[in-house]
Amino acid sequence: MATYTHLDRDLADWRKEGAAKLDAQAWRCDRYERYFDGEVISRLLTGEQRDIFALMLPASRTNWAELVTNAVAERLLVTGFRFGGSSDDAAWAIWQASAMDSRAEMCQTDALVCGHTFVGVWPDEENPTGVQIVPEHPTQTTLLHRWSGGRRKVVAAYKRIVEGDELVEQLIFPDAIATWERAWNGDASVPVGPADVDPDMVEDNPAGVVPIVELAPAPRTKGPPRSELQSVLPIQDRINLTIYQRMVATDFGAFRQIWATGMTLERTDGGGYKAPFNVGADRLLTLSNAQGRIGVIPESSLSGYLDAVAADVQHLAAITQTPPHYLLGNMVNISGEALQAAESGLVAKVRRRAAHLGQGWEDVQRIALGYVGDPGAVNVQAETVWANFETRSEAQLVDALVKMRTLGVPLEVLWARWGASPQQIGQWQEMAARENAAQAASTAAALGAADPYAQLLAGSG
Q1: Which among 88, 243, 304, 381 is least surrounded, fewest beta carbons within 10 Å?
Q2: How many Cα neighbours within 13 Å face the side chain of 1?
Q3: CA dihedral 184, 190, 193, 194 (to 10 degrees)
Q4: What is the largest CA-CA distance in the chain?
Q5: Confidence (pTM)
């Protein structure tokens, strides 16, 4: 087993490379996920402040990171695939049999948060379609690439998963899968030494390809894909810190304080001091000492903190192309045109994310269709069908489609613009054909009953 090599490299070298890449990838993903989940305490606070105001820190978090991400994720809904002919139905059957109606949303959210995620495609005899699509989390799976023919190609996948008290690692090549299993002590690092170089098992890969596909909504030509939260983190830190400071000001300075000089405080039997004044709205404070003074420390104003948070939220809206009314909730009597204009930046960003995600889903379906021998597996012109990215009223959409129909646009195109999936369009075509046939038969019967020559011929027959 130890003599197995791939591309003239030992398994131990591939394992080291995969482990190092996954370590860095998992660290980035964990950081972004903690912000998305609202679990990050502002890094701008010192250790002493953390100790003194520990109870205030959890309540100082306002999770804008989740909202910014969901504003994109909620518009990315896959409704079908176009591979041509019956391949459309085969791809959608595989999609639904793998419960991707719901799992795709989870995958895409992970990809937006972490910058990328992964999807596995495996032959599965227990699935009615013979194929199973499986989400893979970016803290557990990564891909290894090599330059070939002027482009980067996937040559292997590396997985590291904790199962109970065991740590399972896998290297997945097109022709083989190497597996290591060892006890897990809480440290996910992978030291490769003489005792654990050899895999516990090397078996044939039933897929015949590396069946792991990367989904990256915002890839780059160099470096890791960009997370949707990359530009959000510093603003989120500022907002959390400002809210924390507002809470401190509320707790320690929300009430005005009275101070006095030139007076002696009386002790109580317990060793404390008696309250010098009985303060009330109908009472007057006086001092027996003519040199004494009484003053007031006014309560802290919180308007500055509120304005600072509002300014940061405005910056967040501009930088992330998130409509301000999503973040501030101040939409009042806004027209449909104004709403569409306010969301134009978000729609443009979603289109960009969908272009890259759609390519990933098409690669997933090509692998899946290849397992079942469907000709759509080699269709390079396939495309992912998405629900409409824009927010438009039904009246606006219908009006636009009616005008397009008057220009001769085919019904199938209008149905697609409406948001119908390829499967729905096929059903509507069948229904329209039945209606047209029924109407033609009804028309023919009516014309035949009214035609005296037809009646005469019928009688002579």
Answers
A1: 381
A2: 15
A3: 60
A4: 135
A5: 0.79
What would the two tokens of residue 348 be? Answer: 């443009």
What are the residues facing 440 on neighbouring strands?
none
Instruction: Give the model confidence (pLDDT) of 425-457 as tens digits.
Output: 777 777 877 777 778 788 878 776 555 555 555
In the numeric block, the tokens 């109407």 are attached to: 439
Q: 314-373 pLDDT, tens per residue?
A: 899 899 998 888 877 665 556 666 667 778 889 999 999 999 999 999 999 999 999 999
Is-contact 90 376, C-beta < 8 A? yes
Residue among 316, 323, 325, 345 nearest 62 (CA):
316
What tokens were used for 263?
């007076």
Residue the block writes with tokens 């006890």: 183
Q: Return d(Cα 275, Cα 409) in angstroms, integer.
A: 85
Q: Please classify residue 189 by burial: count the beta carbons closer than 10 Å to its beta carbon, then call 0-12 exposed, 13-18 middle and 19+ buried.
A: exposed
The partner residues of 143 in beta bridges, in order of sequence, read 157
Measure the CA–CA gap between 382 and 136, rounded to whole angstroms: 24
Give dist(CA 277, CA 316) in Å, integer.
Answer: 49
**The dihedral sign for the CA sequence 449, 454, 455, 458:** negative
Retrieve residue 12's tokens.
Answer: 């131990």
In whole angstroms, how large is the CA radius of gyration of the chain? 33
d(CA 251, CA 59) in angstroms, rounded, equals 13
Residue 29 contacts residue 139 (beta carbons within 8 Å): yes
Query: What are the C-alpha distances in Å from 182 to residues 2, 11, 136, 170, 230?
Result: 17, 16, 21, 12, 35
Q: 87-97 vs 422-450: helix axis angle to the nearest 10?
A: 130
